[in-house]
Amino acid sequence: MRRALVWMGVLGLLVAFQFAAGAVLSEYVIRVVSMCALNVMLAVALNLVNGTTGQFSIGHAGFMAVGAYAGAITSHALDGRLGASLGPVTLVIACAAGALAAGVAGVLVGAPSLRLRGDYLAIVTLGFGEIIRISIESIGVLGGSQGYPMGADSIPPYAGVGWMVGGAVLVTVLLWHLTYSSYGRALSAIREDEIAAEAAGIPTTRYKVLAFTVSAMATGLAGVLFAHDATGGQHIDPAGFNLNRSVDMLVMIIFGGLGSLSGAVLGGIFVAVSLEALREFQGYRLIAYALLLVGLMLLRPQGLLGTRELSVSMLKRLVPGRREGGA
Amino acid sequence: MSPLPTRAAPLSRRLLPALVTLGAVYPTLLIVRGAVARPSVFLRNVLEGLSLGGVYALIALGYTMVYGVLGLINFAHSDVFMFGAYVGIFSAAFFGVLATSSEGAPAGVVFACLAASMLACAALGVTIERFAYRPIRKAPKLTPLVTAIGISMLLQNVAILVFGATPRGFPPIVKAEPLAFLGITITNIKLVDLGAALLMMVGLTLLVQKTRFGRAMRAISTNLEAARLMGVPIDRVIALTFGLGSALAGAGGILFGIDQPRVDPLSGVQPGLKAFVAAVLGGIGNIPGAMLGGLLIGLVEQLASAYLSSSFAPAIVFSILVVVLLVRPAGLLGKVTREKV
């Protein structure tokens, strides 16, 4: 009962945010918030595979592309019939379609490739990501390299900032519960020692495919919201889902600390905000970003938080003079 | 793999080869039909494919040698290749050959450009190894991989800043002329590329098999700690390996540039990825494997774009990567190693 009330409260806040944001916040702030929310979804989703389960995917942009295209096609088809007043319904159906399509892609990619480990898994996911992108590029109906939709058409911009933040909250909460359930413990066991986990009776292959599929679905959902983002271009093209996009996601969770869900949230926000803050320094900002990544690997390879979660006691230790317990 | 049978794996393992065979039959038939219909065109495609493959092989060698000594996928290698092409542009301009020139350059200028590019790339490779990879050589495997991705980003963005994002033409240091033999016409550039690549591969094989440095490299590749105990100067040999691999990428940059004269800061990515696929196909860490893999990948890409679909050809190359890794992760020439608990 109490839980239901909390959820209704959150929903109410999001709806209020969706409508009030335009009046209170500037367009620029809304755009940055939407971008943060998108990054949080992507980072949290990837963290389930790369962090919690200890596998290594650099092909998640492919799932984002599948979600974005499936969602955009769905809403494009529905929008004419339902009209703009039923926009939220269209968007929810598009989200379901995108997440489902990405989930199917996740099973198809994950089931054969998760038998591989480490470097090899990274390469196979990279290969699959490129295959998805090139396939989309060479399918004429999807607009090829020009992107979707073709001509003067555009994707309906139903995903306002409330939807983006809502998506981020939903993905984060769901994956938090998954990570700290018995399933999540099993996934961490696979990360720590796959052979020991298998000896302890965990069906490792099935669990890895499960984690991969859930992660792909969440990434697909992010893709749908990205395609419908009211502050975006209402247009998607295959080049937006290339290797660089996958690397971006990877950078977010590495900043935050692989295996830390709150770290992934922080990393996603950090990347969006720092890229935005450095926008004035055009040419230099990506160089700074790359240097930061290399520097982080040299000095603190476990990322900001390591595998720990952000907690009140951790914040307390940061406040000088009130140090509790050992370092 | 683990000794315990899992429930999902055996099924997919049994199904995979059948699916792969099914998927490969139709494209192969299409290629055979095209070859039978016009054998001379097929011969030209084979030659052009091998020529492209030779360049891929040169890049693939850098990936495979570094993987052999360090176990690291050097993502920055494709950007070293891009850098080599830029050095080629600038050194050709130094000798007065611009992208707009219509005349070729004397052989001396071609060799000077090649040498400049190889030296500059070797220096870049050694620098990257010294400052980015050496400090984290003992770190867990993920750290160097992420560092390599970071270095790749760094090189691309520095190139955008320094060279500009707009594509540049590559100067025609070798003048394109059609050659006719055996009933086919092919541009001399393809044959120059193929010949140069094969020569360098022979040279590298001699270097690796016959010199002290080559022996040291192979020793490290077999067992780094044992090599250290036998007195092999680990740091110096690893640095030289990076230098050698990067020099080959620089040469590849020139050869690729005279064939496809368009260079931009991100133009290394796609050839780099394909060369990487070639290294995996041949068995990563295996030097003859990289040569074979490179030639095969070039051939497959050329045939696929000639007889199937030119826009889909890269996807076919990556499908080969996926299939090889799933069916035979050690690659064509690689040794299958069993994991011990």
What secondary-structure arrangement, pairings included, does this model have?
The complex is a heterodimer of chains A (327) and B (341).
Chain A: H1 2-24, H2 27-52, H3 60-82, H4 87-113, H5 118-137, H6 161-179, H7 182-192, H8 194-199, H9 204-228, H10 243-256, H11 261-277, H12 282-299, H13 312-318
Chain B: H1 8-37, H2 39-70, H3 77-94, H4 107-133, H5 142-163, E1 168-169, E2 178-181, E3 184-187, H6 188-210, H7 212-222, H8 224-229, H9 234-259, E4 262-263, H10 269-282, H11 287-307, H12 313-327
Antiparallel strand pairs in B: 1-4, 2-3
Can I get a quick summary?
The complex is a heterodimer of chains A (327) and B (341). Chain A is mainly alpha-helical and 327 residues long. Helix content of chain A is 72%, strand content 0%.
Number of strands of chain B: 4
Mean pLDDT across all amino acids of chain A = 84
Q: For the largest interface in this structure, which chains are involved and how many residues does each contribute?
A: A-B, 48 and 50 residues
Structural class of chain B: mainly alpha
Poorly predicted ranges of chain B (pLDDT <50, ≥5 residues)?
none
The global form of chain A is globular
Straight-line distance between termini of chain A: 40 Å
Tally the structural domains of chain B. Answer: 1
One letter per element, helices H and strands E, the order of chain B comes to HHHHHEEEHHHHEHHH
CATH topology of chain B: ABC transporter involved in vitamin B12 uptake, BtuC
Globally, the shape of chain B reads globular
| SSE order of chain A, one letter for each helix or strand | HHHHHHHHHHHHH
The average pLDDT value of chain B, as a whole number, equals 83
The major sheet of chain B is characterized as: 2 strands, antiparallel
Q: What percentage of residues of chain B falls in helices of 4 or more residues?
A: over 70%
Total number of strands of chain A: 0
Q: Write down the Rg of chain A.
A: 20 Å
The multimeric state of the shown protein is heterodimer
What is the count of helical runs of chain A? 13
